[in-house]
Amino acid sequence: MSDNPDNTPTNQHLVEGLVRLLTVDQQSDDTFTGRPQKGGMGRVFGGQVLAQALQAAQATVGDGKAAHSLHAYFLRGGKEGPPIDYRIARDFDGRSFSNRRVVASQKDADGEDKPILNLTASFQTLEDGLEHADAKMPDVEGPDSLRSDMDVRREMAGKMGDKISEDQRKMMLRPRAIEMRTIDRLHWMNSEPREPRAHSWFRTAAPLPPIAEDPGLHRAVITYASDFTLLGTSALPHGLSWMRGELVGASLDHTIWFHREARADEWLLYATDSPWSGHGRGFNRGRIFNQSGELVASIAQEGMIRRRKAQ
Fold first, then answer.
1. Catalytic option among 85, 149, 184, 227
2. What percentage of the chain has pLDDT greater than the value 90?
3. Which residue in 58, 226, 251, 274 is the catalytic one?
């Protein structure tokens, strides 16, 4: 599936693949199945499970109500390959708000369903109300003058040579449907301790359907992308990286508050910081802004982060 002679997928194919990945198949009123990542390796990306769970929840809420927050706990690492099942509990439907609980599970080697994520999402009928926003968009370089992270990855992969495994190289250079351009140096770009703050622009690599046609898809893509760079922010003060095999880690929970509608195929600034780490955990916060400087979403996540022990 490529228009290129070297079989590299086009940006449009990548984004179409992401849309398929985040489109869950309804099995009954309250059960859905999420497709696996094509060519995925190892553990399922947490953003994928979050976004598929949100999509399943959104499918059970009537038109006119939009997700304004989600709170999730990662219970086990999902495996790439097997599909993921999503079961919905309709806890509340009011005039203004609705609430859904989602349990994501995969079958183990014995065929038994094992929960890998619990998510609760709240939905609201949009209305006018009192407004204020004290979050100011950071004064940072715009996306047009920055190199893409993929260009940086290719350059670093060449310099690292045989210091990384072939699987690490494949993961590092795998074509991505989300284009990112980083202003600072992320954990995999840097080996010197630095302030736990990072700023990256992101958008889908090709257009999505208009937001008026499917606002839930744009929220799901933003949810998917919100798991990028976040946990790594807590690694910055220590000068360590998963990419170099110095750390082991996993997301423990993830919370998003959606403040306003935003297009996921237009540049969004993801500003992250980590005010604390300790006891094998790192706490991270994120704010997403559109190019007009409006706060689109706020994110919080705690993750397990440990120095890898010498073999």
1. 227
2. 76
3. 251
